[in-house]
Amino acid sequence: MSLGFSMRAFIALEVPETIRQRAEELEKDFGIEGLTLVKKDAMHVTLQFLGDIDAAQAEKVVESMKKVKFAPFKVGFSGLSYFTPRLIKVIFVEISQGEKELRELYGKIGKELKSSGITFEIEKDYKPHLTIARVKHVKEMRLLRDALEKNSHLELGTFEARSVALKESTLTPSGPVYRSLYELNL
Length: 186
Prior knowledge:
Blueprint: E1 6-14, H1 17-24, E2 35-37, E3 44-54, H2 55-66, E4 73-83, E5 90-97, H3 99-115, E6 129-135, H4 141-150, E7 155-161, E8 163-172, E9 175-185
Helix pairs in contact: 2-3
């Protein structure tokens, strides 16, 4: 058992400013009551959510990440979708290029974490995506569906993924604040 400090952590693919800026511009269509938009600085593609870990576990995560070998690859973002079709909870931009590589990278990182004894949430059907909004309770569901339809063929762009990062997440009243702890170059 580890005593002392712990942090909320995850491993993510950083998304360039230009793509995050384009995603943030959707705010005009999604300024709907009951919807919480993700701030531009908080946008990323999660590869592994680790939950609360302590300093010793964070070191094990870094050592696990160092064992992962993966070449840089292109990632493209286009089209809007959402999780939980009956009751929309998360709105995201889909991965139009590089989904196969992101799934492979997810698997490789997961394998190394598991071999190091790190526990984490395993997603059976991992779907890489860029979350842009979370839905609490929308009274005007028609407005939400109209905004989704209007932006269904949205193109945000493509970039070359060259690294992934271990991030610390601090929850604040104004939203999460992320800090990079380690970056793995691909």
